[in-house]
Amino acid sequence: MSTPDIRLVVLDMAGTTVADDGLVERAFDAAALANGVQPGSPEHEPMLAHVRATMGESKIAVFRHLFGDEEKAQRANAAFEQAYHDLVDAGHCAALPGAAEAITALRESGRKVVLTTGFSRATQDRILDALGWQQIADLTLCPAEAGRGRPFPDLALAALLRTGTDSVHQVAVVGDTGYDMLTGTRAGAAVVAGVLTGAHGEERLRADGATHVLASIAELPALLG
Fold first, then answer.
1. What pLDDT does residue 121 have?
2. Distances in Å between the alpha carbon of 39 and those of 31, 43, 57, 78, 126?
3. Backbone angles phi, psi at 214, to 5 degrees
4. What are the start-end ranges of the H helices in the chain?
5. What is the mean pLDDT of the chain?
6. Which of 4, 41, 106, 171 has the fewest beta carbons closer than 10 A?
7. CA dist 76 to 40, 63, 119, Å?
8. GO molecular function terms here (predicted)?
9. How many percent of the chain have pLDDT more than 90?
């Protein structure tokens, strides 16, 4: 089966193009502690399970679900961001092998590339700065700039609108989580590709709508042709 004529590639960051290496979970420990939940405690374990299950979702949305009220959610989000920023500043941030090369190849083939995230703009910029990726993509988007985060279609559709892409049938959405796959399918993307370098395995990716599953982002340019 031939691959559709893809003009826009919407790429997730952590777990897809950027190595996570447990940074989200480590930062979540700080978020939980900010609301009096000790890491490793019986209360903490189901919260951590929810964080793992909802990888890719807007972090403030995750905290609203876990902590119930807005004040606690905002406190958790602030602690999470500070902890994540500290980890990035300490050097715990790296591109996944082949990611930069894949992005470059996609753009050189005439396609637009948009990097998306479930993080805030401040955290997204921290990662881009650490990697020297400020100019690597045509556009970068966080949930607050699109309307809603994953699993809603807003990030992919905002990318389409902002890049002037003609049709959802020219869009590929790529990520490492089920929520990325749901975003792609709900946006009507022609290609919804999961990668096995992050949070979720092939079964979850397929269940949530992946049209393709790749070992890593490095395989994407060959898939799209």
1. 93
2. 10, 9, 21, 17, 25
3. -115, 150
4. 23-34, 44-53, 59-67, 70-89, 99-108, 121-131, 143-146, 154-163, 178-187, 202-207, 220-224
5. 94
6. 41
7. 17, 7, 13
8. phosphoglycolate phosphatase activity
9. 81
Q: What's the rounded mean pLDDT across residues 112-119?
A: 96
How far apart are alpha carbons 130 and 144 in whole angstroms? Answer: 22
Which of the listed CATH numbers 1.10.150, 2.60.40, 1.20.1740, 3.30.70 matches domain 23-89? 1.10.150
Q: Flag whether pLDDT at 1 surpasses 60.
A: no
User: Which tens digits make up the pLDDT trace of 193-203?
Assistant: 999 999 899 99
Could you read off the pLDDT of 40-51 as tens digits, one per residue? 899 999 999 999
Token pair listed for 155: 């990030």
154-190 exposure pattern, b = at least 16 Cβ within 10 A, e = fewer: bbbbbbbebbebeebebbbbbbbbbbbbbbbbbbbbb
- Could you tell me the maximum CA-CA distance found in the chain, to the nearest angstrom? 53
Superfamily of domain 8-20+94-224: HAD superfamily/HAD-like (3.40.50.1000)
Count, residues in the chain: 225
Rg from Cα positions in the chain: 17
**Of 63-67, 102-106, 139-143, where does mean pLDDT reach its minimum?**
63-67
Please give the Cα distance from 139 to 10 (Å, whole number).
10
Asked if residue 2 has pLDDT above 80, the reply is no
Tell me the mean pLDDT in the region 73-92: 91
